[in-house]
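can u do me a favor
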């Protein structure tokens, strides 16, 4: 039953929108073209911000800091978690790729996989959000937004470690 409903939802939604637009005498095609044009303009505006994020991730990976931190923090948290900590603020898709690798390698019941899942769910792609949303509407001064976002990300990561250790590590 759910499969049949899910197949029909999108066509029904489109049909409903077209019906209401016809009843209200909205020029459907012209409005669609205007929306597509606005979307294209927004995507052009955010390209420099997205390029900056890609360059920052590449520089971070090439610098060797990641390998150093993996060796340094291995007693506190699993080494596989370090890339998630540093890529989460930059890129959600990169973080999900890292998380998928961890889950595939270690399995769903492993402590590291559970910790990674909690971290992914309790932090935000701060720089991506700033680049896309602030960049699309032309906000240039976002110093406090960066600071607030990074503090929230740090808090989410620390609490994720605490919660994962509390619930998923055996009492030692």
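np, heres the sequence
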């Amino acid at each position: 039953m759910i499969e049949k409903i899910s197949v029909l939802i999108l066509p029904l939604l489109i049909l409903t929108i077209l019906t209401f637009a016809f009843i209200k005498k909205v020029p459907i095609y012209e409005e669609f073209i205007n929306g597509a044009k606005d979307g294209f303009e927004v995507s052009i505006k955010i390209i420099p911000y997205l390029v900056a994020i890609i360059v920052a991730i590449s520089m971070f990976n090439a610098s060797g800091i990641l390998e150093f931190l993996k060796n340094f923090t291995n007693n506190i948290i699993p080494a596989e978690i370090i890339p998630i900590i540093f890529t989460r603020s930059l890129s959600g898709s990169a973080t999900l790729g890292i998380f998928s690798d961890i889950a595939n390698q270690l399995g769903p019941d492993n402590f590291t996989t559970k910790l990674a899942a909690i971290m992914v769910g309790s932090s935000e792609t701060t720089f991506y959000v700033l680049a896309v949303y602030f960049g699309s509407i032309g906000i240039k001064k976002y110093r406090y937004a960066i600071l607030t976002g990074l503090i929230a990300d740090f808090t989410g990561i620390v609490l994720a470690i605490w919660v994962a250790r509390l619930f998923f590590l055996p009492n030692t």
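The first helix runs from residue 2 to 23. hope that helps!!
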